[in-house]
Every structure is written in C-alpha cells, then in structure tokens.
C-alpha cells in the first residue's frame, strides 16, 4: 500500500532563496539532515536526471537505528523535475538490505510565495513501509526547521 507523508512551514526568505538552498551541495549538507544526524554528499549533479548520494550518520547510533548500517542511512536521490523557485521533485532510493526500505520514494518540495516569505511543503509519496510515519514526518519537520534557520540566517 502506498503511503504519503507531509510537512510544511513558512520560511522568511524568497522562493528563489529557498530553491537555491535545495540545489546547493553545501547548503543541503548543512540543513537537510534532521535533528540527531549529520550529512555528507558523495556526488553532485544538480540537473534534471542528475542527482546526489547522501550519507546520513546518526550522532548517537545506540540501538542501531540506521537503514544501511547501524549508524547510517545512505540514499541515492535523482532529480526528476526542477522548476526554479517553484518545485523540486526527487526520487529517493535507500541503500538497505531490509526489504521494508525497498522501493522508490518520491519527494516533492513545493515553494509558494507567502507575503515576505515562502510556504514550503514537502510531500513524500510511496514511503517505504519500514519508515515509521510519525518519525518520518518529525524528520521532515526537523529538516524544514533547519532549512528555515539556514536561509533566514543568511539574509
């Protein structure tokens, strides 16, 4: 069964600024990892059909929460669609032996101008069954909070 997870936030920055943070390697490494993780981009090709590979490392791997190893989640992301200052569509595949994490999850980042800022909504479709919905939505919200802090501080 297909599952959809969502999170949203208004960010005090222009859609162009937010869009640029979605397509900048150093920016993604800084804001995308949710609380309790750090990230490293291993390759980078920011164009439709291109993508990146991110290694997310748990700061406290107690209990082995990782999908790829006890301490890591590795995800290959392909850019399916890039619409400047409006939308980024990504196809994400986790590197994992457990079939509960198999399949391709589609993540769409929608950007809508809202007053002096941007309403950012991320929608994840076909979320692998092994990812708990509450945990995933909390992680998405954490990444959005990091994104807000990152772009609002840069202003």
Automatic annotation (TrEMBL):
Residues passing through the membrane, by range: none
All residue ranges annotated as the Activator of Hsp90 ATPase homologue 1/2-like C-terminal domain in the record: 13-152
Pfam family, one: AHSA1
Entries under InterPro entries matching the protein: ASHA1/2-like_C, START-like_dom_sf
Family indicated by similarity: Belongs to the AHA1 family.
Protein name: SRPBCC family protein
Organism whose genome encodes this protein: Streptomyces glycanivorans
